[in-house]
Amino acid sequence: MKAAALALALILASSCGVIGSLRPGPTIAPLISAAFLSVHLFVGDQGDAQERSRIPELRDAIAAALPNAWSTATAGRGQLSLRTDGDIDMELDGTDGTSALTQHSSGGRVISRKIAVHTVEGPRRLTIAELMATVLHELGHIWCCFGPGTKDGHWTDAPKDFSTVGLMYSPMTCRVSRGSDPICPSVFSERELAEMRLNGP
Hints:
Elements: E1 7-12, E2 18-19, E3 36-47, H1 49-73, E4 79-82, E5 88-96, E6 100-106, E7 109-121, E8 124-125, H2 128-140, E9 150-151, E10 154-155, E11 172-177, H3 190-195
Parallel strand pairs: 2-6, 3-4, 3-5, 5-7
Antiparallel strand pairs: 1-11, 6-7, 7-8, 9-10
Helix pairs in contact: 1-2
């Protein structure tokens, strides 16, 4: 049996949580757009010594890749910039936990959003590929997914086979071959782009 050559399914356990909103319906705010999104990416102060020393490197790698990754994920329909006064705060948390979008509301309107991205899953330190998929997934939660065919902000019809298209499932699945970096979902599907108001040409 060619076990070494077989692709293994790697579940991204830090896939998702949604705090502060029980997702009764869209909570999109008027001044935030998937077409022109800005993110404040910063490092938290949690984690063991090894993870705290690793996180600045992870931040730099994610910061360098995220604008192009967002453009690719949105089929060229979205632009993302990194700014200290971004539309959404994103913290790299060096502990084991469920990555999540937190939304705070006042008077029925969302007034702030924060994403916590956990860099550890149990005893395992997540790779850049896994963290990028998590970042895109959590950003997608600003708009997706609601209504029929969804549960807790995710599609209920998870594919049986691995695909790089479709980021809003839980758990997300990456594909890894022995000795290789994981390959993770990296492109929003057309229905996800429609939820994000990016279904135009």
